[in-house]
Amino acid sequence: VVVSLIAVLALVWTMPEIPKTVKTGEICLPSEIGPLKCGSTADLLHGYLEREIATKYDEVKRQDQKKQENHLKKVSARLMNIYDKSFWEMKPAAKLTGKEQPDLRKTDSNADMVPIREWRNGRELYDTKGFIRYGIRYRNGRLVVPVDGTYFIYSNIDFFESCNPSSGLPDVKDINKPIKHGIFKFNILEGEEEELVSNVQPHTISTNRYYNSYNSYVSSLAELKAGDELSVKVSNISY
């Protein structure tokens, strides 16, 4: 209302002389194609104010953007003086190690891959080489990304399966079902889980006839958004 009133007052003060042939219910205002245009008071006034307010808004927006840029330069310079280059190297990072897993959920009993739901986190990381830094959060067995960016993700797991001592064959229900290991992401705004990287290995005959051991390492660069949740999944959590 204030902006409109100011615009109307400015209009009255700066308006060129109005032709004497203007009819009742009409008004003459500066137009975008000429000095004056006469017509319906409501239509012309609405169009004129819309053009004037849009121009002023763009000007205010440019000034505000310039202020923000200047403020960022001042703040970044001050932070650089305080923290030197280390401030810009504070990138989100985390490294967790595994722990004993809870019982399998009923919903995962027939799933092709199941998530690792428990990791050492918080104070449990003090006695490990793990850490969580600069905005990364741990939630329900997942790592939550704080900002958009390109991340290096990786996971390393050792698998062990029992074998039949008489033959050395893996003691599993279906030997044709491979051993899988992968990293997945989920974002609540998208509502769908996506596989980022995975590894698949076949079962082998044990050389010692009692058990098999497998190592799986997966890694990749991934474009992640703020709020993406990363999880690790395997085909058989009992391994």
UniProtKB/TrEMBL annotation:
Q: Where is the signal peptide?
A: 1-24
Which Pfam families does the annotation name? TNF
InterPro entries reported in the protein's UniProt record: TNF_dom, Tumour_necrosis_fac-like_dom
- Main localization category: membrane
SUPFAM superfamilies attached to this UniProt entry: TNF-like
Q: Which UniProt keywords apply?
A: Cytokine, Membrane, Signal
Q: Which GO terms describe its biological process?
A: immune response
Q: Where in the cell is it found?
A: Membrane
Query: Can you tell which superkingdom this protein's organism belongs to?
Result: Eukaryota
Q: Which GO terms describe its cellular component?
A: extracellular space; membrane
Sequence ranges assigned to domain THD in this UniProt record:
92-239
As for family, the record states:
Belongs to the tumor necrosis factor family.
Q: Which PANTHER family match?
A: TNF FAMILY PROFILE DOMAIN-CONTAINING PROTEIN, TUMOR NECROSIS FACTOR FAMILY MEMBER
Q: What is this protein called?
A: TNF
Q: Which organism is it from?
A: Ruditapes philippinarum (Japanese carpet shell)
